[in-house]
Automatic annotation (TrEMBL):
SUPFAM superfamilies: SpoIIaa-like. The lineage of its organism: Eukaryota, Metazoa, Chordata, Craniata, Vertebrata. This is STAS domain-containing protein. It comes from Rangifer tarandus platyrhynchus (Svalbard reindeer). The chain crosses the membrane at residues 66-93, 145-165, 203-220, 226-245, 257-277, 304-327, 348-367, 379-397, 402-424, 444-469. It is a multi-pass membrane protein.
């Protein structure tokens, strides 16, 4: 080896960064978010609300766990396990502090297809009750949960593989209208699946394309077999649940602890059914025997993984998309960040590890997450506390649920889906903001109802991407300079020494879901950017090619060194080149306005079309006290000039 080669090799080794202890700590904090928030946990401020929220959440976890296990075509006790282990694992690896992970209606519905296909009800007579079986359950029940656990295992492996491939960043392709339509359609499927319990009917398992319509056709054909007692009890339960939950919502600010109506209803229904012997007297179907304890872990059967790969992909995609939407919503509401890829890892491990403990596929549920909001939960400690109460049910209270009528359990599930079902109201919003998004919502919903949630999700994504590509102007699709920025100072007549920094950004391309997130990031970077004037011109040019915003801050390098966070900073968005925008783009414009307002940055929009102004006013609560839409840049600057002079005149200290 020559001296030059040795020198070159030594330079390469010197550039390599050897991991140290600090790097390992940062990696642990990044991959184990519990280490980040647990070290700053305040017992005095957070423990009480987390405890109250945990108790309320435990009631929902137990009720939904039993029901979603039945929905997944397995014994109800496995739903209790599915409410325990995934919640613990997500609390360690997940970043959503207000996300309630556990059994989920959509993933249960998908896994039921595999269970009914591989272990149909007709095979029950071919299996015998075995005393050596787990928890004394029949071999038939164990075969069914083995299939559901295999779906959970393979679905988690797919999510973990997506994490390794860093596919979480691809979620920007899944827009809000698609998620809303898919979850609403899937909720419609779940309500339909509960119809046989609400009506007290015996019905064979019906699935596949157009299975939704076949179920209602069977119901109307056999309408005489409806049990009046079950129907009346279902209606009474639904009315009580809806009424009390609405009252809780109305008076939650006046009362510190809301009434756990789900728990009260379960206790009352079990007691009434036991005292009146409804199972034998009226023929009502009840939950049945709930064995105590947790069985030792067992690996899912690997020989059937190839047979459940379709359902596993559905569980992985649908569960992750629905959970990520809830995590991002809670992060936006409570102002913290969520890593899309870390969420893939958290849900992947929640499914893989839990599958060894006889758990059905899991995900975050909208109803339970909304319950955490309403009860004032602060962190994932609320979910961990709920796991303690779920454990108490598993080891002590479970057998007492024998008398719980299935129609009451179905009523709890239907009311719990209210948050998804009322998303029909979004249709009005999409119609006023972007009628194409309205059409995507309707078509995605119809595909979900007619086929399945994963089919509807795939159709919605493909349809959205195809329409956006068709709407983009072909001449500008490959343009690297999408936006231009200009910056200058404006003197005021009242105070010559006071200079106001104004940034003018011209948007020259459509703003849609493909670039909306990057638009927001780059706008915030331009506002908060410091020391730009100290960068060499070559670095600025390189930055121009790699970002959505093209910064021409060389026009005023002296001012660029100051952070744009003072009240003297203003932002003008020139929308003359914004040819069209979808719902995601309009929402992001409103979010940029609100974020800038919170940073004391005045924002003005110029050259906006009438449809964009209407959409933004409908989509967000904009400031109505002062105008933000102007016909030209000069009009916006004149308005800033006038407001500055008025503020100086109105300040006695300045006068």
């Amino acid at each position: 080896m020559t001296g030059a080669e040795r020198k070159k090799k030594s330079i390469l080794w010197s550039k390599m960064h050897v991991p140290d202890c600090e790097d390992f700590k940062q990696w642990c904090r990044r991959r184990l978010p519990i280490l980040d928030w647990a070290t700053h946990y305040s017992l005095k401020e957070n423990l009480l609300p987390d405890t109250v929220s945990g108790i309320m959440l435990a009631v929902q976890q137990v009720a939904q766990g039993l029901a979603f296990a039945v929905l997944s075509s397995v014994h109800p006790v496995f739903g209790l396990y599915g409410s325990l282990f995934p919640a613990i694992i997500y609390a360690i690896f997940g970043m959503g502090r207000h996300v309630a992970t556990g059994t989920f209606a959509l993933t249960s519905l998908i896994s039921a297809n595999a269970v009914e296909r591989l272990v149909p009800l007709s095979s029950q007579n071919l299996t015998t009750h075995s005393n050596t079986s787990v928890l004394g359950l029949s071999d038939f029940e164990m075969q069914r949960i083995s299939v559901a656990a295999a779906v959970s295992f393979l679905g988690g492996v797919i999510q973990a593989a997506m994490f390794v491939l860093q596919l979480g960043s691809a979620t920007f392709l899944i827009t809000e209208p698609v998620v809303s339509a898919m979850t609403t359609g899937a909720a419609t499927h779940v309500v339909t699946s509960q119809a046989k319990y609400l009506l007290g009917m015996k019905m064979p398992y019906i699935s596949g394309p157009l299975g939704f319509f076949y179920i209602y056709a069977y119901i109307f054909k056999n309408i005489k077999s409806v049990r009046l007692e079950a129907l009346l009890l279902s209606l009474l339960s639904i009315v009580v649940l809806v009424l009390v939950k609405e009252l809780n919502e109305q008076f939650k600010r006046k009362i510190k602890i809301v009434l756990p109506v789900d728990l009260v209803l379960i206790i009352a229904a079990c007691f009434t059914c036991y005292c009146t012997n409804m199972e034998n007297t009226y023929g009502l179907e009840v939950v049945g025997h709930i064995p105590k304890g947790i069985p030792p872990p067992r690996a899912p059967p690997m020989n059937i993984l190839s047979a459940v790969i379709t359902e596993a992909f559905g569980v992985a995609l649908v569960g992750y998309v629905a959970s990520l939407a809830l995590a991002q919503g809670s992060a936006k509401k409570f102002r913290y960040s969520v890593d899309d890829n870390q969420e893939l890892l958290a849900h992947g491990l929640s499914n893989v590890i839990a599958s060894f403990f006889f758990c059905i596929p899991s995900a975050a549920a909208m109803g339970r997450t909304a319950g955490l909001y309403g009860t004032g939960a602060k962190t994932q400690v609320a979910c961990l506390i709920s796991c303690i109460f779920v454990l108490i049910v598993i080891y002590a209270i479970g057998p007492l649920l024998y008398w719980l009528p299935m129609c009451v359990l179905a009523s709890i599930i239907v009311v719990g889906l209210k948050g998804m079902l009322i998303q029909f109201r979004d249709l009005k919003k999409y119609w006023n903001v972007d009628k194409i998004d309205w059409g995507i919502w309707v078509s995605t919903y119809l595909f979900t109802v007619c086929f399945a949630a994963n089919i509807g999700l795939l159709f919605g994504v493909v349809c959205t991407v195809a329409i956006v590509i068709g709407r983009f102007p072909r001449a500008k699709t490959l343009s690297t300079k999408n936006m231009k920025e200009m910056e200058f100072k404006m003197k005021t007549e009242m105070d010559d020494e006071t200079l106001q920094q104004v940034k003018i950004i011209s948007i020259n391309n459509p703003l849609v879901f493909l670039n909306a997130k990057k638009f927001h990031t780059d706008i915030m970077n331009i506002i908060q950017k410091e020391n730009t004037g100290n960068q060499p011109l070559d670095e600025i040019r390189k930055h121009e090619q790699s970002t959505l915003l093209t910064s021409l801050s060389g026009i005023c390098n002296e001012e660029a060194t100051q952070p744009c966070l003072s009240p003297k900073c203003s932002l003008i968005l020139d929308c003359s080149g914004l040819t069209f925008s979808d719902y995601s783009g309009v929402s992001m414009l409103v979010e940029v306005y609100m974020d800038c307002k919170n940073k004391s940055v005045d924002v003005s929009l110029v050259h906006c079309t009438a449809s964009l102004i209407k959409a933004m006013k409908y989509c967000g609560n904009l400031d109505s006290e002062k105008p933000i839409f102007f016909e030209s840049v000069s009009a916006a600057i004149s308005n800033m000039h006038l407001n500055k002079n008025l503020s100086i005149l109105s300040d006695p200290s300045e006068v």
